[in-house]
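New to this. Explain the following:
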Amino acid sequence: MMLRHIATVGGYTMLSRLAGFARDILVAAYLGAGPVADAFFVAFKFPNFFRRLSGEGAFSVAFIPMFSGMLATKGQQEALAFAHRTIAVMAAVMLGFLLVMELAMPWAMHVIAPGFSDNPAQFALAVELTRITFPYLPLISFVALMGGMLNATDRFAAMAAAPIMLNLSLIAALFALVPYTETPGHALAWGVLVAGFVQFFWLLIACRQAGMTIRLVRPRLTPDIRRLFRLILPAAIGAGVMQINLMVDVLLASLLPTGAISYLYYADRINQLPLGVVGIAIGTALLPLLSRQVKRGEDQAALDSQNRGLEVALLLTLPATAGLLVLAQPIIEVLFERGAFVAADTRATALALAAYCLGLPAYVLVKVLAPGFYAREDTATPVKVAVGAMLVNLVLGIALMQVIAHVGLALATAAASWVNAGLLGLILARRGIFRVDARLRRRSWRILLSSLAMTAVLLGGLELYTATRGLEPALRALGLAGLVALGALVYAIACQITGAARLGELKAMLRRKP
């Protein structure tokens, strides 16, 4: 059942990421890696940072276990009443926060991008664009809460499809608004705001179709709402450590020469593909399942669910990591090198991508391990782990940027993610609520062996791809696609030979219904 849900979320996330690549190809062509691009990426990242901490982070990991528990023990009517109280309080908090941030945006910009202060025009542009994009935060926070309600009832498709609309809105904004706005950055900023409304109404309709009509009631701090906020406050850090690390990267990158923020953004977009398709999909499917199992006292079932989550994570993440390391330069070249994005930008972005993807397995492991805490309504422990990881990221980032500039920031983020994943796993094991079972131990080394076989083939194929320099871009893109397909085929065959995964077993798990 869990693999079926992972496939649903992962499939829609894959479509979203593909639409995102189309968006980023256009953004790179229109904006390149110059001052307008840096200003827009800050304006885009700032509300998204809070969105991932509050809407998709803290609210989700605190709300879903409570909502799932009420569904399992008190029924849908009581759970819906709790959801309505939560939405009412969230509306009051988010709208107040929005007003404060709109007024304080110049001061906030000094914090998130202090390097922009040396360029008054870029600083003013970043403030203006961020004021346009920031209302996206309350809208997408409501989207995340409604998505949590649907996920808790094993309806994953609507929420998983919502990000596609963001990408389509930004693409439409580039084509429709660029001729009428001061810069392409302004067009993209308005596209972000429009996307918030589109996603909000999409989830509102999905909830109604699922028999969960959303009503706005008077905000009241009832005991269950107080308990929710006690869980939310620490979860805001615990669930968002990766996003906090990425914001630290933006802050430090603003102190580097122009283009550093853009290089990190484009590299992170590629890195987010396997993270979203695998990590977020597993975490999304695992949290409500673990919450129900823990609430019912099914400890062995919960342990098995988490082991299978780790198995799927390794099966999909290790080959993705190897592929990105080997093909970083061709991927950036084929996707982005056109228009204002030149060869020097490709080289700088590819180095950042290679550094980021060294931490990819850790990013995904965090998504699998963290639900072990949240399902038990423990949002405090991940905070302590997150603080340690952030300190590692900050110290390493400051040290490495002196030597290898923006690449050092990406390496520091990868190292911090390994610290985060390692500590989460160690604490769960010491508490006796997680241990690696025999099947996971047996299959892990086989997955690694299969990934190494794929890597050898890709290294050989890379030499052939390099020989295509000078050919038409479309032919080079076709060659890269063929190389990726060959690597995937070799990996699939190697998994069958080594026993890392069995095709029949995967088919059976996908067919299994709740």
Notes: The chain has a mean pLDDT of 84.
